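haha ok so turns out i had the wrong file open the whole time. this is the CORRECT one, sorry everyone. sequence first:
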Amino acid sequence: MSKLRILLGDDHTLVRNGLRKILQESPDWEVVAEAGNGRDAVREAAAHKPDVAILDITMPLLNGIEATAQIVKQTPSVRVLVLSMHASEAYIVQALKAGASGYLLKDSADTELIRAVAAVAQGKSYFSPSVSKVMLDDYVRHLADKGVADRYDTLSGREREVFQLIAEGHTNKDIAKLLFLSSTTVETHRAHILQKLDLHSTAELVLYAVRRGVIS
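then structure:
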């Protein structure tokens, strides 16, 4: 069985050393490359093609958001987990739009880092509980300010099932197998969901799911 290969991008050597120590306690994981700035992180991702890239959001030369966007575009097989000290919606939204699969706060426990990397490596999304709460609180406040109903309520029970599975990172094939449906039916559900929620991409769907508290 091949090891899970990880890239670390952070401009503080002590932070990278600490992360490496935690991650490599898992015998099936290995840190294959490190970078002290965003430009090097993009280069290392292209050179080593890790399974997961863990990127600090505030790196020199190229910040973690822009580095994420470039990595996802140039090496789409790499799943990116963003690390940040900030739990503000603005940062979270930027990270998701750039293509990040997860958003973890730097003050998280070691065990949460392990859970986050494992989830992202499996193609799922992961967000610190406090991040999910910020997104949900902002979403509820936004609805209250506008005095509008939540479009989520227009989804059928089956569509809600498909919605959550898509947000968690499952493919149409995976969803079809889980729900005993054809891939064509799943694709139809996906199209209806996007239309009902006025969304235009999977990234927007994931963002909506986090804001509403469907996934964490």
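The first helix runs from residue 13 to 23.
again sry for the mixup
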